[in-house]
Amino acid sequence: MMLKAGDPFLLWGNVLLLVLLLFSASKAEHISAVGDPGMRRDGLRVGFEAWNFCNEVGHEAPGMGSPRAADCFDVLSSHGSRRQDRSLPRSNLILCFAVSTLRVRHRVTADHNKLGVGKSFPGLTTIARNNPDLYAAEKELFLGSLCQVKDNPRPWHFWTIMLKNGNFDSGSGLCPRNGKKAPPFVSGSFPCFGIGCMNQPILHHQETSLQNGTTMRGGFSGTYDLDSLGAPPGRAEENSYFEVKWVKKVGLGSWEFHHKLKTSRKYPWLMLYLRADATSGFSGGYHYDTRGMLKSLPESPNFKVRLTLDIKQGGGPKSQFYLIDIGSCWKNDGSPCNGNTATDVTRYCEMIINPATASWCSPTSLQNCPLYHITSKGRKIHRNDTANFPYSAYHYYCAPGNAEHLDGPTSTCDPYSNPQAQELVQLLPHPIWADYGYPTKQGDGWIGDARTWDLDVGALSDRLYFYQDPGTAPARRIWTSIDVGTEVFVNNKDEVAEWTLTNFDVILT
C-alpha cells in the first residue's frame, strides 16, 4: 500500500518517530560520565592518595606504608548474594531484602592498605619495588583492581580523596623545575620547618560498617605531625588534622561526604579535595597511570557538573575554596600529553568562592590576567580593553613556565608544585558567569548558603583562554580530573575548613 501526504497512517508514524527522537535526545542529555552517578550506589568505592609538594611521595611515613588506601565494599544479603544495587536517583524503590538481613563485604583489607616499599603485591614491577614514587603509583593500580566495577564504556574504580602537603624543602632536590630535574637551592618563598618537612601523613582508617541495619558509615583521618604517632587523631590543638567521613542510609539518597582540614604552625599550607579522576591514563597534575571514577572523559563544551555543597567553615582568608576545579594535560603545541614531563603541561580551571579572595587581575596588573576573555556569545575582549574586560571575574592567571611565545607581560606559574609545567585560570564569582550557572556575586555558595549547583563547566571551559604555541591546531580540551575542595595557603594562625559534598555527578550533554 502506498501512503500519500496527509494520510493519517503517515501522520501518526511521523508523530511516533518524533516522540522516539525526543526521548532518545532526552536520554542522551543525561548520560553520566562517572560510574556512580550522584553518589547513590550503596556499594561504595573510595580511594585515598596523599602527595608531597610536587605531587610525588618522596618518603613514606613510618609504619604507614605507601600513602595510598581504599575502602571498597559490596552490600550482601544474609545468604551471601550481592544486593541489586539500584540506589538510585529514584530512591522510592522497595528493597529486595529486609534491611536487617544485609551485611557489608569489603574488597580491600587492612594489609592491602598498609602495603609499603619492599612489600610485594600482584603486578608490582621490579623497578618500583623500592622506589616510593613508583610504588605508590603501582599500588593505586592494584587497589583499583580490587575495587573495579564492570561497566560501559569501560570499568571504573573509586571516588578519590586527595590530600597534599604544601611544605617544600628546596634543599632536598626532590622536586623538578617545570618538569626537569633541578638541583637543591635556597629559598624563603616556601614553608618548611626543616629537614623532613615534606613528609607523608599518619593515616587512620575507619572501615565502613553497617549500623543498626540501616546506616553505613566510614572514613579516613589523620595528621601530618609525625610526633603525634600513637595519640588519638585531632586531639592536640596544635597539630594539623584532616578527616573525610561518609554516611548513607541503605537504599536511600546520596552518600554524604563530610570533610575537615586544619593547618598548623608546622603545616600551614594543606590541600584536601574529593575528585572524580580518569579510570586510566594521566589524571590532572600527575604523570602516572591512575584509577578513578570517570568512565568517560568529558570534553569541552559538552558536559555539565551537578553537586550539592554545604560549607560550614571556610579555612580563613587564604583558603582558595574551589567550587569546582577541572584539570587536564596537553602540550603547548596542542598535542596530548605522553608522560614526557619536560614538554607536558598540566592545565587547571578553578572557581574560587571564598569571598575573602581578591582579584589580582586588574588594568594595572595585566600580567595576572589571561590574554583575552570570551563572552558566552563568542565576543573576544582583549585584556588591554580596559572599558570592557571583566578584570574582577579573574583571581589570577599564570602561563606555563615552558611557554616560548608569551604575548606581553605574563606571570608564569610556580615551576615546582607539579611534576611538569602548569597553567592556571582562576575565576571569581561575577555576573559574567551567569550564563553557565556559576556564582555571580561574592558570598554565593559560601557559609550559610548551601546549594545544589548545575554548572555548565563544558561550555565555560571551552571559552577560556589557555596558552598555545602560534600556528598550532587547537588542543582538544578533554578533562581527566574534576574535584571540589580547598587549598589553605600559608597563614599566621591555624585555620579550619569544613564542608559537606553530596550528589556529585558529571553529565555528558
Overall description:
This protein is mostly beta strands. It has one domain (31-508). Helices cover 9% and strands 30% of the residues. It is built from four helices and 20 strands. The strands form three sheets. It has a ten-stranded mixed beta sheet with strand order 4-3-2-5-10-19-12-13-17-16, with helices on one face. Strands 1, 6, 7, 8, 9, 11, 18 and 20 form an eight-stranded antiparallel beta sheet that branches. Strand 8 and strand 9 (252-262) form a beta hairpin. The chain is globular, with a radius of gyration of 24 Å. It starts with 7 loop residues before the first helix and ends with a strand. Keywords: Signal. Residues 1-28 form the signal peptide. Pfam families: DUF7705.
At a glance:
With 509 residues, this protein is mainly beta. It has one domain.
Strand fraction: 25-35%
Q: Biggest sheet: strands, sense, closure?
A: 10 strands, mixed
> What radius of gyration results from the CA coordinates?
24 Å
Q: Helices and strands, in N-to-C order? A: HEEEEHHEEEEEEEEEEEEEEHEE
Helix content: under 10%
Find the structural class using helix and strand composition.
Answer: mainly beta
Give the overall shape: globular
End-to-end CA span? 41 Å
Biggest β-sheet: strands ordered side by side in the sheet: 4-3-2-5-10-19-12-13-17-16
Identify low-pLDDT runs. Answer: 8-13, 15-28, 87-99
Mean pLDDT: 90
The number of domains: 1
| Oligomer category | single chain
Number of strands: 20
